[in-house]
Each structure stands twice: as C-alpha cells, then as structure tokens.
Amino acid sequence: MAAKGKVSFNENYCKGCELCVAVCPVHILALDTSRLNENGYHPAGAVEPEKCIACGNCAITCPDSAIKVERLEAK
Ligand code: SF4
Ligand code: SF4
After folding, report:
1. Is the pLDDT of residue 56 over 80?
2. Domain limits for position 27
C-alpha cells in the first residue's frame, strides 16, 4: 500500500515560487491566489492533502524551508 503523508506549510516563509507545486508527483499543491501572506506572496498549500504520499519532494525542494512532511502509519 502506498505511504500516506501529512504536509504542512509555514505560510509566512513562502515566497510563492511554485517549485513545490512543480515537484509534487500527485499534483496536490497550488498557490492560493485568493490570499496573501504577511510578505505579500500568494502562499502555497495542499489542495487535496489526503492524497499526499509522503515522498518529501516538496520539503526538500522548498528554498525557504516552509514545508514539513510527516509520514503517517499505513492503515
Ligand atoms: S510529500 Fe510528496 S506527495 Fe506529499 S505534498 Fe509533498 S511532493 Fe506532494
Ligand atoms: S517551494 Fe516553498 S517558497 Fe516556493 S511556493 Fe512552495 S512553499 Fe512557497
């Protein structure tokens, strides 16, 4: 069974570069264009967080260390 992950963002570290969006193999990350963080950027977030497979690509890629990925126990 595929691994499950829980991805979380420290929104105010995000500068909206979209690198995380590009490297997510299950395409669940996107910038929230309806909001701005405290630095004036659209913050990245998970659109369908339940589909995260805990690959860690986003956290490794983020130049600002805004993303944390936890691996959840397989059910
Ligand atoms: S850990 Fe992998 S699957 Fe989960 S959001 Fe990040 S890039 Fe996508
Ligand atoms: S890679 Fe980091 S800084 Fe860039 S959009 Fe994603 S969370 Fe924001």
Report:
1. yes
2. 4-72
